[in-house]
Please model this.
Amino acid sequence: MSAPQSPVDRSDDWSDTPDPHAVRPRRLDAWTVLRVLVCAFGLLSLAYWGYIAWPFPMPGLLFVIGAPLFAAVVWFLFRSPRSPIETDIVGKTIVEVALVIAAGASWVSIGHPVIGLVFIVVAAVSGVVQFRRETP
Model:
């Protein structure tokens, strides 16, 4: 004689559960690419500003390396998706606006206001789209 069986079929319980160790591909769309390009251009803008605006080698070299490094550290600490400091959406927006204005103002200060304005507009559109994605 066999043991009593449950009326629920157990053979199908785990079929809909995803494998926790499976690598899920990250979603890559046009807005994500634009965000990466805006961030990279902002860092390069700050480095170029340090190269053009300051006499070389000192203090120019400090600004070529220091300005983008400072911006990247501030972005990582307060704005990145994996930041170690928990910040609400208002704080993230303030940090992002400050960094975008700094990069745009660097172009204005070296005599290229059109590049600075175009960068600020593109970064603002990208930031609004990112804000809409982050808020429910």
Q: What stands out?
A: The mean pLDDT is 85. The chain has four helices and no strands. The longest helix spans residues 30-53. Helices lie at 30-53, 60-78, 89-109, 113-134.
